[in-house]
Amino acid sequence: MSDRIVTDARYLKKLIREAEALADESMIAFAKLKQAMLAARQNPEVGVDTGQRALMRLTQAEQQAIAMSTNLLRVHEELSKVARVVGGLDEGVPTEIQEAAFSDGELVSA
Length: 110
Prior knowledge:
The protein has two helices and no strands. By secondary structure, the protein is an all-alpha fold. Helix 1 runs antiparallel to helix 2. The longest helix has 39 residues, at 3-41. The protein starts with a helix and ends in a 23-residue tail after the last helix. The relative contact order is 0.13.
């Protein structure tokens, strides 16, 4: 295997992990935002329906973030397959993603 292939593989590995981490960070941020929105709505001076549309939109954004995360897992899996074909065996532990991570079509929409 050439040095260029090894260098490219390591760079792609770094980038896919960064992308997956950013997807997780976005979901964490959405969760914190939802928690703050719901806590603010519990103020007795605020109507119980205040911000309902915003919560619905945030829920849509969360679903899209989960779909993005799932697609990134698919990208990771495909890159791992390419690494095995082009470069031989993965260095260290190969990436194996369980089929169950992709199986719920209702939650993941492309």
